[in-house]
Write a structure and sequence with these properties.
heterodimer, A: mainly alpha, two-stranded antiparallel ribbon, 16 helices, 4 strands, B: alpha/beta, six-stranded mixed beta sheet, 17% strand
Chain lengths: 334, 371
């Protein structure tokens, strides 16, 4: 009984999910290269989306800069390892430092502007960053992008499989940390700021501080995601990290349910996974049906935004309660 | 410069106090858990207490140091003000008269300590509009004080000036905290005000709709936490202990206000009277000495209003707080208020007991119009 109760704890759920994901590296020889690649990408996008869900679901701040933060991560790890010849851990630390600075910079913007306008301003900032990447040839490879050598850790080159395991560990850690943040006064403070700024301030919540932290956390997630992405895919080009990826991340979070970790997972797998894993990775459809996922995603987004503001997770919860109610009623009648 | 340092020190003192109260709750929690165990298994309370008491005395020392610094700074500031005022009286500037009066008010406030809040020549101008114009009154400790006036008289502006949502154009808001220190509130930011012991509600119910009632109260107790971001990120044991302490307080408030049935419900769809009650409960979380209610009876029916009046009285007695409210519902105001201030077009027209207000010609004129 006690064990069963422990299983119901959300943290246990995350761990089980992580263990289930470990099946992928175990089945590595069976999977095609594209499938491995798309699964890894989707998982990294999930980490980024988790940070983004904190920003949009809890703080109510829409940002369209997440893709360029991923780009920052990819170029950071490239320049640290291939240009500066420093160990991998330096890349992570430097990535976090850069993320904190960038997050604070974007956060300052959010103090004055809200909603749609904030999205537009962050979009502008992201475009500026893309231009900067294009011109920093030495660290980003300029217009043609850059590829990276294998990372050396503990004296030996890291194989794809071990990087995949690192990604899975990162996913589980990201889920747990996000859960922790949501379920402490930080998450509640963000929600109350989103609900009403003045009421939040009257309760002693500093709007500046919490918005800044929210931006910084989401930026750190994105940059670390970028680092993982680069270590796995080993290629990055600045023009790829444009508006499309940012919008897809936004769509993933909104589609799945911005206030639920599992919802974000569903969202990312629908937006990125459906396209990368199912349509491109498994080669189920070829030719003209290859981009079918775009149509499916589009209709899903429209339906969810119109009818289920809490995302698919909200829909599932609703259905669950309806089912439960019906069962209780039946029990009462019987 | 010294003003900035003063605000910094005062905030530091609040933080230290919170740490102290956290340490104290730790002791209490420890003793409670030990008492539940059978006697043989109990750890020695003395040992633990000795350890924590050392910690607490350390914090106490720090607090004393900070308060001593604050005092010297305050004395400096007052001396500076004295000099400035003397200079002003010599030069005999007409527009500086108010400054002198404000300072006199402050000195008066220091001498007599039965007031909790003193509003001194408060003016708030929005461009050409004088929403509040040279308003002065004080709220006595432990009373229910009402602020009334026709629509657009500037009542909510007064509230916003007290809680520093607006920085007053002229004038000062002085507040006396539980330790009889007087603070000029306009030196502080909005989110610092709650630390002094001032909690407020809003005209419309401003609950967090995505959170349960209990969690809403925890949001109300936000300023009680001392754990920093990383404690929250990794859910260190400190956070759990602190959360337990705040939760305990929340449950106490919930039972006292009769909200036990709604504890785990979400506020969406609850009756308006209950929502108002939850908001009141939320203000009580930080154990304030002054509660500011902005139109508590707005949108309530008669029975709900009567219940609310009872509730406000109960809160004032049980939690030993001063209540300062703005209200349009005259039955409520006349029924529960000890003293009432009537304002019109940002200016005070009358201050007194409900009977005096009812019989005042100017108030009648302001509400019903003159001949």
């Amino acid at each position: 009984m006690k064990f069963k109760e422990k299983l119901k704890h959300p943290l246990a759920g995350f761990l089980i999910f992580g263990v289930a994901l470990l099946l992928i590296p175990v089945l590595y020889p069976v999977l095609t290269v594209t499938l491995r690649d798309s699964l890894a990408r989707t998982l990294v996008y999930f980490i980024v989306a988790l940070g983004f869900s904190l920003l949009i679901g809890y703080a109510g701040l829409a940002s369209l800069g997440s893709a360029s933060f991923i780009a920052v991560g990819t170029f950071t790890v490239y320049s640290v390892i291939d240009v500066l010849h420093l160990p991998f851990i330096v890349a992570i630390i430097l990535g976090i430092v850069i993320a904190v600075i960038l997050g604070a910079l974007f956060g300052i913007v959010s103090l004055r502007i809200e909603g749609m306008y904030l999205a537009i301003v962050t979009l502008g900032l992201a475009e500026i960053m893309t231009e900067i990447f294009k011109n920093l040839d030495k660290f980003t490879g300029g217009v043609s992008g850059t590829s990276m050598k294998r990372i050396v850790m503990f004296g030996s080159k890291l194989s794809d499989r071990s990087i995949f395991i690192i990604i899975i560990i990162a996913v589980v850690i990201a889920m747990i940390l996000t859960y922790n943040l949501i379920n402490s006064q930080f998450g509640r403070a963000l929600l109350s700021i989103k609900n009403n700024q003045s009421a939040a301030q009257a309760m002693g919540i500093s709007v500046i501080k919490y918005r800044m932290i929210a931006f910084i956390v989401s930026t750190v997630y994105a940059v670390l995601g970028g680092i993982l992405m680069m270590t796995f895919t080993k290629y990055s080009i600045s023009s790829y990290w444009g508006l499309a990826i940012s919008l897809n991340l936004l769509a993933a979070v909104v589609l799945g349910g911005s206030k639920s970790i599992w919802g974000v997972l569903i969202g990312t797998f629908l937006i990125f996974g459906l396209d990368l894993v199912v349509f491109k990775g498994m080669n189920l459809f070829s030719g003209r049906w290859q981009n079918l996922s775009l149509i499916i995603n589009g209709t899903l987004i429209i339906v969810v935004v119109m009818f289920y503001p809490n995302g698919l997770m909200g829909l599932f919860k609703e259905l669950y309660y309806k089912f439960k109610k019906r069962r209780v009623k039946k029990d009462e009648q019987a | 410069m010294s003003k900035l340092k003063l605000t910094y020190l005062v905030k530091k003192k609040f933080h230290l106090k919170k740490q102290k109260s956290y340490a104290e709750t730790l002791v209490n929690q420890f003793i409670e858990t030990q008492n539940k165990k059978p006697e043989e298994k109990r750890k020695s309370v003395e040992f633990y207490e000795a350890k924590v008491i050392k910690h607490i005395t350390k914090i106490d020392d720090k607090i004393q140091k900070v308060s001593a610094e604050i005092e010297t700074l305050n004395i400096d500031l007052i001396a500076k003000n004295h000099a400035e005022i003397e200079h002003l009286t010599k030069s005999n500037h007409a527009d500086q008269k108010k400054k002198i009066e404000i300072f006199e008010d402050f000195q008066e406030f220091q001498k007599e300590s039965d007031s909790i809040l003193k509003i001194s020549h408060l003016s708030m101008h929005f461009g050409g509009l004088k929403a509040v114009n040279d308003l002065s009154f004080d709220v006595k400790k432990g009373e229910i004080f009402g602020l009334i006036g026709p629509n657009g008289a500037g009542k909510t502006t007064v509230f916003n000036c007290i809680t520093q949502f607006y920085k007053p154009t002229h004038g000062e808001v002085y507040f006396q905290d539980k330790e009889n220190n007087i603070h000029s509130l306009s030196n502080y930011k909005v989110h610092d005000i709650i630390d002094f012991g001032i909690a407020r509600t809003f005209q419309n119910v401003e609950l967090v709709w995505e959170l349960s009632v209990l969690d809403n109260l925890l949001v109300g107790g936000h300023s009680l936490y001392t754990s920093n971001f990383f404690t929250q990120l990794f859910h260190l044991p400190k956070l759990r202990r602190e959360e337990n302490a705040v939760k305990k307080r929340a449950l106490e408030v919930i039972t006292k206000l009769g909200l036990t049935n709604y504890q785990n419900a979400y506020p969406v769809g609850l009756p308006y009277g209950i929502l108002k009650r939850i908001e009141l409960a939320r203000t009580l979380m930080t154990n304030p000495s002054l509660i500011i209610l902005d139109e508590p009876a707005a949108g309530l029916n008669d029975t709900e209003t009567n219940e609310l009046a009872e509730l406000i009285k109960v809160i004032q007695k049980e939690f030993n707080v001063t209540i300062f409210l703005v209200e349009h519902d005259m039955n409520l105001v006349m029924g529960i208020c000890d003293r009432i201030c009537a304002i019109s077009f940002g200016q005070k027209i009358c201050l007194g007991t409900p009977e005096e207000i009812q019989n005042d010609k100017r108030v009648q004129e302001a509400y019903l119009g003159g001949d």
